[in-house]
Amino acid sequence: MIFEIPNPFSVAGFLKLDISDLPVILVTWCFGPWSGLATAAIKVVLHLMVGGDWLGSLSNLISAACLIFPFNWAFQHPKWKLYKRLYIGGAVATITLTLVMSLLNLWVLVPLYSVVWGWHKCADGTINCARGGAVQCLERVDISRVVCAIS
Known about the structure:
By secondary structure, the protein is α+β, with helices and mostly antiparallel strands. Strands 3-4-5 form a three-stranded antiparallel sheet. The chain has a two-stranded antiparallel ribbon with strand order 1-2. Helix 1 packs antiparallel against helix 2 and helix 2 runs antiparallel to helix 3. The longest helix has 36 residues. The C terminus is likely disordered.
């Protein structure tokens, strides 16, 4: 969460590659899923202490759980070779993360962000963004590209 790498293939500029989940996966592999979840919680608390927002940190904790438990499931198969555990664990974790976070973003996080940041849909299909006293109407091309311009 502190060391983020910009994704050049991303449509949205705020999406970045977060390498802070690698230690969480390594702890899960060595000590189990609950230790991995505790490591993710410590990571989130540290991020909150240096100035992260609570909603993004909560969603990062949920996404870490979506990675931890499928990887742990794959690591529990002793008959599989290591590369098979890693490939299957990575594939199942990616599918789980995509499904859970897509639905969570659709039904919980984006509506919650709209309440927290003060986004309101206008009658003409634009988005009113009131943050810090500045209000600006933005055109709405599609919901994944809504950007809050602060003047």
